[in-house]
């Protein structure tokens, strides 16, 4: 057996737009807030959303503004309850069947399967545990000492270079394992570039990744 063949194999999947048919942040916020509040908040946030769409506002800055608008000062246990409900009740209907078939193939091969996503770990973790993933690397929501969330992110948004930084923190030097990577957007560029086997938009052209 060669040294390369002896390496462990890792399959890293982006979530929004790769494993799912669309972005999941606003569906989650809809689950938290309801239609009326969501509509009013989107109107309020429209300058931020337009600035992000036009490239004037960075991904992480826009994301925190959105999260703070919906979640700031909410009890973290309540947010976690919403996240668990969303993972169990809503996410299954947003998945790409062909992406889940690919996950099943990697699991059958005994590969270590990891979600690497800018989506919130709050709902990624319960969903990924049920789906059979080994690890989740996502964006984390900050919890204050009073048990409420600030709506800000704890650490960096898991986007772009941060995806590879988080993967290397978990797994060690990149050369120690063989990497399959699946993504669909510029936020996956560094992850795909580092992979031995990179798959860009393998599961369809629609959808937008975070």
Brief write-up:
By secondary structure, the chain is of the alpha/beta class. The protein has 9 helices and 7 strands; from the N terminus they run H-E-H-H-H-H-H-E-H-E-E-E-H-E-H-E.
Give an account of the 3D structure.
- The chain has 210 residues and is α/β, with parallel strands linked by helices.
- It has a single domain (3-200), classed as 3-Layer(aba) Sandwich (Rossmann fold), CATH 3.40.50.
- It has helices spanning 3-6, 25-33, 35-53, 59-71, 76-89, 97-108, 121-131, 161-171, 189-194; strands at residues 9-13, 112-120, 135-139, 141-143, 149-153, 178-183, 197-200.
- The strands form 2 sheets. It has a 5-stranded parallel sheet with strand order 3-2-1-6-7, with helices on both faces. A two-stranded antiparallel ribbon has the order 4-5.
- Helix 2 (25-33) runs antiparallel to helix 3 (35-53) and helix 3 (35-53) packs antiparallel against helix 4.
- It is globular and about 55 Å long.
């Amino acid at each position: 057996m060669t040294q390369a063949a002896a390496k462990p194999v890792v399959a890293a999947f982006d979530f929004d737009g790769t494993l799912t048919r669309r972005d999941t942040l606003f569906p989650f916020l809809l689950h938290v807030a309801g239609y009326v509040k969501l509509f009013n908040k989107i109107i309020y946030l429209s300058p931020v959303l337009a600035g992000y769409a036009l490239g004037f506002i960075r991904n992480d800055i826009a994301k925190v503004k959105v999260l703070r608008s919906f979640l700031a000062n909410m009890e973290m246990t309540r947010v976690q309850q919403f996240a668990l409900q969303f993972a169990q009740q809503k996410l299954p209907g947003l998945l790409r069947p062909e992406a889940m078939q690919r996950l099943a193939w990697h699991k059958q091969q005994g590969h270590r399967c990891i979600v690497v996503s800018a989506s919130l770990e709050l709902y990624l973790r319960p969903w990924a545990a049920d789906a059979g993933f080994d690890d989740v690397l996502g964006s984390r929501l900050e919890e204050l000492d009073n048990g409420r969330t600030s709506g800000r992110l704890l650490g960096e948004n898991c986007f772009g270079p941060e995806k590879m930084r988080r993967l290397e923190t978990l797994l060690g030097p990149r050369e120690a394992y063989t990497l399959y990577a699946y993504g669909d957007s510029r936020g996956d560029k560094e992850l795909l570039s580092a992979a031995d086997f990179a798959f860009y938009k393998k599961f369809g052209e629609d959808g937008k990744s975070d």
